[in-house]
Amino acid sequence: MASQDWFDKDFYKVLGVSKDVSEADLKKAYRKLARTYHPDSTQGDPAKEAKFKEMSEAYAVLSDKAQREEYDQIRAMGAGGARFQAPGAGAGGFEDVFSRFGQSRGSAQSADFDDLFSMFGQGGGFGSGRFGQSTGGFRGYGGPQRGADVTARTTLDFQTAVKGETITLAGEDGKPFKVKIPAGVSDGQKIRLRGRGRPSPDGGEAGDVVVSVTVRPHPVFTRDGLNLRVTVPVTFTEAALGATIEVPTLGGDPVKLRVAPGTPSGRVLRVKGRGVHTAKGTGDLLAEVQVAVPAHLDDQAKEALERFHELEPKENPRADLMAKARE
């Protein structure tokens, strides 16, 4: 958009700032608006894209000291009643208006709009869609360029991942930095440290550090969401007759569980609140019973089992399975 339109545009109003706004507050106001109206976040909304273009134009002018002074002078003329008139329309025509500016450039009598306004803000035009260094590193309508992300990896033991901990990693420059591992982080999860990556090349936001987490398996426990699972072997007689058994917990004292008489393999006993503790909730400990079959029996034990076999119900435990298979 050509600068001859400055007369009718209130760039201060577009950015929501006062005419005496400082450079720092001007940049802050623009960045706040850019986050709302940037094309990447507006999903192709034409009205918001037009707003973003308008405010980017306003910032390009007001952030450049020379252009801002010229813009203020033009707007001051408009406030005093001096307006553009068509050539020959009277004493307040183009030549009279612009004879106040850039007199070293010579008479404006033969100039059209673009020639007249080329006197103001060399390099401040908008035709290229690119703002130069005078705009504080803002490029086109995209605003400042965000710094690049930095990736890192860490391997945690199972308990550290469940409980959470602050660890130390080495940065690209070899300097150590701390990372807070939240409780309940899972294998393959990524932790993002905002603003800890590479700096922006033109005054924008710094990138992030993205830490990829690998969790070593535990020899006893596994994760099931916020729950912890453990497989608990029991003897045949414990499962058949019932028993009270001890079950380990992660990093704590064992708990006692009651195995009811006739408990089959695969039954899950739940211990409330002994799973993973996170800000989103607390899981349980799930103890899956597994009946352990002895690999070797002495003669006395074998004889006892044979007597039991003679006494046990003669029902076929696989009868229902076979019937369903034939359906």
TrEMBL record:
InterPro entries according to UniProt: DnaJ_C, DnaJ_domain, DnaJ_domain_CS, HSP40/DnaJ_pept-bd, J_dom_sf
Keyword line: Chaperone, DNA replication, Stress response
Keyword Ion transport appears in the UniProt entry: no
Transmembrane residue ranges: none
Gene Ontology MF term list: unfolded protein binding
Gene Ontology biological process terms, A to Z: DNA replication; protein refolding
GO cellular component, one term: cytoplasm
PROSITE patterns attached to this UniProt entry: DNAJ_1 (PS00636), DNAJ_2 (PS50076)
Protein name stated in the entry: Molecular chaperone DnaJ
Record lineage: Bacteria, Bacillati, Actinomycetota, Actinomycetes, Micrococcales
